Structure formats: C-alpha cells, structure tokens
C-alpha cells in the first residue's frame, strides 16, 4: 500500500517491514532513532507500549496528541528528532469534515478506550458538542474530564447505560463514531437504537471488516452517511506519509491498495 503511494507521488522512497517481538520493541525504536530512519509505522499492537517508551529514547519525543492518547501510530523525523505521532483522531476528523462542519454540532463517541481518546481530542478541538457513551460510566467520565482539561471551553458529556440497552441518539446528532476497539465481535451491534439514526447523520465505523458492518448497513438503510474503516486507514496513512516526506499523498490511492491487500 505504502510503496504504491510512493510510486504514485513519484517519490524515490522505500518502505520496509520488520518483525519485532513485544519484548524487543524498545530496542527496535532505539535502533530506528540511532540509524537515522525518516519514519516508522507501528502495528496496532505496539501503539500503546511505544508511547510509554518514546521519551526515554535520546533524540525522540511525543506530540501533544500522542501524549494525550497514550498511543503512537508512527514516528516522523523532524530536524533530527523522531516525533511520536498519533493521527488516528485526525483521520476521523477529516472523514467527518468531508461531509460538513462539526463546530457546535453534536457528536457521539462510542467507548472510552485508547482510540477514543485520540478521536475525542480531535473532535473536541474542532468544537464538537461531544457525548462519550460507554456502558461503564466511570471510564466515560474520566475521558470527559481529561478532554475538558486538554481543550479549554470544550463541551463534553459522559453517558452511561446498562450493557445490553440501546443508546438512543439525539435527533440533532451530526456524527457518530465507533472506534476500531469497539467491534461487533466484542460489543452487540444493537448498542445503538438503529431507529434513532437519521438521514444526513455521518456514521464512522473504524473497524476493518471484509463485509460492511451491521452498523453501517443499518445506517445506509436509514439514509445516514457511512464511512468505513478502510477510508480511515487510508487517511491516517496519507498523513503519516506526508509527515515523513513533506509531500501530500492521495488517500484514494491508499484506499484502493488497502482494499486489494486486505481483500475488502
């Protein structure tokens, strides 16, 4: 996928994949810094652990977004320093903004985990009126409090409900986001009351599935706009490549390559 993007942008760059065991991640990150790599892309399983290691490495630091989320999706070299970045939330934000402004509009974020922190920060910084919805109210309240601390004047609410209940969406909701960590394999697809989906709502499902998820199928049936996980993967990867090279990469090229590679 990334090699195809380099070719499309006429960049004389190479992307190489390396196997790394979890117990040797710190060594791998230190090696990348020592060898002068222009960038590193991290597998999902390493993102949280990498965030805890980066600032102990000479010549490396975390971006504000990565520090808040506790997640690093990539490292990018800037003026001789490797910066740990988290573009996951920005990818969701770009996908939402492609369908209209969200400043002052309602957004619902399902869950309060690591990915939700990244997404919540991006939406709050854009001025969304954000509801963090989670069956367990305590994580939702912690994330809402952290977001208020990080984004002055942010309007954030936390909502809890009994697991198995359906979340009724406010009819003025503009955006609904389900992070990849909240999948249909671990959470009932009926987490949302599908009858409360409305035409024009933007429903973003970050899960990468070989078939359209139940949430997106129900959204389409009710006239809502669905955004699939492969779109988010392409947007996040495009931002990563731009951070490495300084050149904008067409996300559509990445999406086509990702669909082919993943068999979507």
From TrEMBL:
<dbReference type="InterPro" id="IPR036291">
    <property type="entry name" value="NAD(P)-bd_dom_sf"/>
</dbReference>
<protein>
    <submittedName>
        <fullName>Shikimate dehydrogenase</fullName>
        <ecNumber>1.1.1.25</ecNumber>
    </submittedName>
</protein>
<dbReference type="GO" id="GO:0019632">
    <property type="term" value="P:shikimate metabolic process"/>
</dbReference>
<dbReference type="InterPro" id="IPR046346">
    <property type="entry name" value="Aminoacid_DH-like_N_sf"/>
</dbReference>
<dbReference type="GO" id="GO:0009423">
    <property type="term" value="P:chorismate biosynthetic process"/>
</dbReference>
<dbReference type="InterPro" id="IPR022893">
    <property type="entry name" value="Shikimate_DH_fam"/>
</dbReference>
<keyword id="KW-0560">Oxidoreductase</keyword>
<dbReference type="GO" id="GO:0004764">
    <property type="term" value="F:shikimate 3-dehydrogenase (NADP+) activity"/>
</dbReference>
């Amino acid at each position: 996928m990334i090699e195809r993007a380099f070719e499309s942008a006429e960049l004389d760059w190479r992307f190489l994949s390396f196997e790394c065991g979890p117990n040797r991640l710190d060594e791998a990150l230190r090696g990348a810094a020592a060898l002068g790599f222009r960038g590193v892309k991290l597998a999902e399983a390493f993102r949280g652990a990498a965030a805890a290691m980066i600032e102990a490495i000479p010549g490396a630091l975390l971006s504000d977004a990565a520090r808040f989320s506790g997640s690093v999706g990539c490292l990018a070299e800037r003026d001789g320093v490797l910066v740990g970045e988290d573009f996951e939330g920005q990818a969701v934000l770009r996908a939402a903004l492609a369908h209209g402004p969200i400043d002052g509009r309602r957004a619902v974020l399902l869950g309060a985990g690591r990915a939700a922190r990244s997404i919540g920060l991006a939406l709050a910084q854009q001025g969304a009126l954000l509801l963090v919805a989670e069956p367990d109210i305590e994580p939702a309240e912690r994330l809402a409090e952290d977001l208020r601390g990080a984004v002055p004047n942010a309007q954030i609410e936390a909502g809890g409900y009994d697991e198995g209940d359906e979340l009724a969406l406010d009819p003025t909701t503009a955006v609904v986001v389900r992070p990849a960590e909240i999948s249909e394999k671990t959470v009932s697809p009926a987490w949302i009351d599908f009858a409360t989906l409305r035409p024009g709502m933007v429903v973003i499902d970050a899960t990468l599935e070989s078939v359209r998820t139940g949430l997106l199928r129900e959204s389409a049936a009710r006239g809502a706009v669905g955004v699939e996980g492969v779109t988010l993967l392409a947007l996040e990867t495009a931002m990563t490549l731009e951070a490495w090279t300084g050149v904008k990469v067409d996300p559509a090229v990445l999406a086509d390559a990702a669909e082919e590679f993943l068999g979507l």
